[in-house]
Amino acid sequence: MAVTQKARDLQAAGRDVLTLSMGELDFETPAPVKEAAIAAIAAGETRYTAVDGTPALKAAITEKYRRDHDFLLSPEEIVATTGGKFLIYAALRATLEPGDEVIIPSPYWVSYPGIVRMCGAVPVILATQAGQGFLPDPQTLKATMTPKTRWILLNFPNNPSGATLPLEHAAALAEVIEAHPRALVLSDDIYELIRFDASPPGPLFAKMKGMRERTLTVNGVSKSHAMTGWRLGFGAGPAPLMAAIRRVAGQTTSNPCSISQAAAVAALGMEPSFLTDWRTALRTRRDLVVRTLNRIEGISCLSPSGAFYVFPDINGVVKRKGLADDTAFCTALLDEEALALVPGSAFGAPGFVRLSFAAADSVLEEAMGRLKRFCA
């Protein structure tokens, strides 16, 4: 995106740019994970593995779902890939035909529509409202679905809004989807472990009656274990779908990095309680940012219940300062205050911006000072 590239250019030129546009935690990868990777290198685990992951990794994924969600999987229902993004691409590439439609609630992760188009299908955007917590309305979904609907892409906790999906709301969506036998659900759970409310984690749709054979649950260790650079994602779904994904991976990336797989085994073996300190820090940062944003005239911000982003409505500031739109807001903010945010338009939500609070308290305090000065 233009604003992100401009921020990089300014940093390269020596300017003190604060970047709150990145989608990754600022914490270190846990020590047991790094130690497992080093041990794997020392043990010579540097060869090809099975395309869909080592037996050890598949066993760790199976145990994660059993331990955390009482959800039992067979090895044929699991595929590990070079990042969760590739898993999404492989699933869509394996199943979409020209003219198929993929319903994507907005705001959405920026890559979803592009991946759909790369696969020759049509992204159909289902708008949500801040006043409804950025949750897709079941009746609107019902009106949007057609015989051409092949997939519904759902991402909770959501990037960029931080919304989480209550169980009863998920059930209402599943009831609508169930009436369309050709439609599949892709549940992107990559932020599963980063939530601040009591919303149910894990494979919500796959555990619902009649939905297991129609749901692909995507997950990984990138966000939960501060491992974005390790590029290791995994998915659980019906065996025929996973076999098709396996074929796509076999002719493109082949297996995920063997060392990343060994590291992921260690990551998945850690009790989720290791995140307690991280969540506490993130909650404190979230509260600081939301409190500050809601004190700025022309900005309104919901408190996110998951992930590590806030997604404020900045329309009031855009209008007051005579700016064209949210992209102009971000460009001017970068030029004047050297603060990099992401325009909401990139996520299908004009008039908003995404700000990551996965940064040190001192960085966030400085960033909030720059933002207040810009909006004054």
What can you tell me about this protein's structure?
The protein is 40% helix and 13% strand. With 376 residues, it is α/β, with parallel strands linked by helices. Strand 5, helix 7 (167-178) and strand 6 (184-188) form a beta-alpha-beta unit.
Identify the notable features of this structure and list them briefly.
2 domains, Aspartate Aminotransferase, domain 1, seven-stranded mixed β-sheet, 12 strands, alpha/beta
Could you give the topology of this structure?
Layout: H1 2-12, E1 18-19, H2 31-42, H3 55-69, E2 78-81, H4 84-95, E3 101-106, H5 111-118, E4 122-127, H6 138-144, E5 149-155, H7 167-178, E6 184-188, E7 215-220, E8 233-236, H8 239-250, H9 258-269, H10 276-293, E9 309-310, H11 315-320, H12 326-337, E10 339-340, E11 342-343, E12 353-356, H13 361-375
Parallel strand pairs: 1-10, 3-4, 3-5, 5-6, 6-7
Antiparallel strand pairs: 2-8, 7-8, 9-12, 11-12
Helix pairs in contact: 2-9, 3-9, 4-5, 4-8, 6-7, 10-13
CATH topology of the largest domain: Aspartate Aminotransferase, domain 2
CATH class of the largest domain: Alpha Beta
The termini sit apart by 27 Å
Q: Main beta sheet: strand number and arrangement?
A: 7 strands, mixed
Total of helices? 13
